[in-house]
Design goal:
By secondary structure, this protein is mainly α. The protein is built from ten helices and no strands.
Length: 196
C-alpha cells in the first residue's frame, strides 16, 4: 500500500522521502524498488539497448540519490529531480567515451508461430532495431528530449524542468529530433505500411 501511494504521490510519498532524507534505509529501499525500472528504462534507451550500461547508470543514480537526497529541496517534483539525475548520469557516462553494445533481445516481440509469423518477427525486429539505433544515434540533448517525451510521456513543462531549460528549447530540440529521426528512418516507411 505504501509503495502504491509512493508511486501516485500524496502524504505517503512525502513521508518516505523525508525518512530517506533522515537516513532511513528502509525508505531508501522503497524509493529504489519504486523507481529503479523507470531509471533503468531511460538509461537502456539512452544507450541504444546496452543492458550493462543501463545497469551501471541505474546503480550510479541510486548511489547519488542515497548520498544527495538531503539536497532535494522539493522545489520540483521528486520524479523530476530523479529524471534530472538519470539524464545527467547518462550524459556523463557517454562523455567518458565508453563504447556501447547494441540491443539484441531486450525488448522481445510478441510470440508468433508459423512461417508468416517468423517473417513478421524478423520484420518487427529489424524495425525495432532501426528505431532504437536511430534514437541512440541522436545527439545527447536531442536523445534526452525524445526519451522523456515518448518513453516516459512527460509534458513539455516537465521535460523543461528536468533538463533545466525553457519549454521553447524543449520544443526546438524535439523538432530537431523528429527531423533527424525522419531522415534516419525514412527507408522504413514502406516496411511500416506494407501490411495495411
Amino acid at each position: 500500500m505504501e509503495q502504491l501511494a509512493l508511486m501516485i504521490g500524496g502524504p505517503a510519498k512525502e513521508r518516505v522521502i523525508e525518512s530517506c532524507r533522515r537516513g532511513d534505509r528502509e525508505s531508501f529501499r522503497l524509493l529504489f524498488e519504486t523507481y529503479k525500472d523507470r531509471v533503468y528504462t531511460v538509461a537502456l534507451y539512452f544507450f541504444g539497448g546496452d543492458e550493462q550500461a543501463a545497469a551501471d547508470v541505474t546503480q550510479q543514480v541510486f548511489l547519488k540519490l542515497f548520498t544527495r537526497i538531503a539536497q532535494f529541496r522539493r522545489e520540483a517534483e521528486f520524479t523530476t529531480w530523479l529524471y534530472r539525475l538519470t539524464i545527467n548520469a547518462c550524459i556523463d557516462e557517454r562523455r567518458r567515451g565508453r563504447k556501447f553494445d547494441t540491443l539484441d533481445e531486450t525488448v522481445a516481440a510478441p510470440k508468433l508461430h508459423g512461417r508468416h509469423a517468423a517473417e513478421e518477427r524478423v520484420e518487427r525486429r529489424e524495425v525495432s532495431d532501426a528505431v532504437r539505433e536511430a534514437v541512440a544515434g541522436l545527439r545527447p540533448k536531442l536523445r534526452a528530449v525524445v526519451l522523456l517525451k515518448y518513453f516516459e510521456e512527460l509534458s513539455y513543462e516537465e521535460i523543461a524542468e528536468v533538463l533545466g531549460c525553457s519549454k521553447g528549447t524543449v520544443a526546438s530540440r524535439l523538432n530537431r529530433g523528429h527531423k533527424a529521426l525522419a531522415r534516419k528512418l525514412g527507408h522504413l516507411r514502406g516496411a511500416l505500411f506494407q501490411g495495411d
